[in-house]
Amino acid sequence: MANKTLLITALLCSCTFARAETDARQLVELPEMMQTHMMSNMRDHLQAINEIITYLADGNLDKAAVIAEQRLGMSSLDEHGASHMAGFMPEGMRNAGTEMHKAASRFALKAEEGELLPAYAMLKEITAACVACHAHYRIR
């Protein structure tokens, strides 16, 4: 059993290293301070999405809408320093980020209407923008 576990661990590690060496995503070079800021923003985005899902599961669409707009939506751009960061991003990365923020604002409006399934269905627009950006760009 121990040998099997060791073999699986070795295979997983080799796959991880192989992927890292062949990462075809575009490297977006940012000053260290901006990298840290961007990573902090993305972790907060992920946490916000988790909170939104939790509120949806509890049927609390109003709170889901508030989190979406304040932490992800268009009204969150100033707090995230988006205008300062945008100049360092390639156009496609900026577009994906803008689409994520717009999708979050659209989600918030839909959630405020109080219908769970239509609001839940719009959540995929937020995560699709995240997935698209992470599939094409990296900062490290």
Defining traits:
140 residues; Four Helix Bundle (Hemerythrin (Met), subunit A); 2 strands; 79% helix; elongated
Brief summary of the model shown:
The protein contains 7 helices and 2 strands. It has 140 residues and is mostly helical.
Question: How would you portray this structure in words?
Answer:
The structure is a single chain. It contains seven helices and two strands. A two-stranded parallel ribbon has the order 1-2. Helix 2 packs antiparallel against helix 3 (61-72), helix 3 packs antiparallel against helix 6 and helix 6 packs antiparallel against helix 7 (116-136). By secondary structure, it is mostly helical. The mean pLDDT is 89. The protein has helices at residues 2-21, 32-57, 61-72, 77-80, 82-86, 91-112, 116-136, and strands spanning 26-27, 137-138. The longest helix has 26 residues, at 32-57. It has one domain (26-138): Four Helix Bundle (Hemerythrin (Met), subunit A).
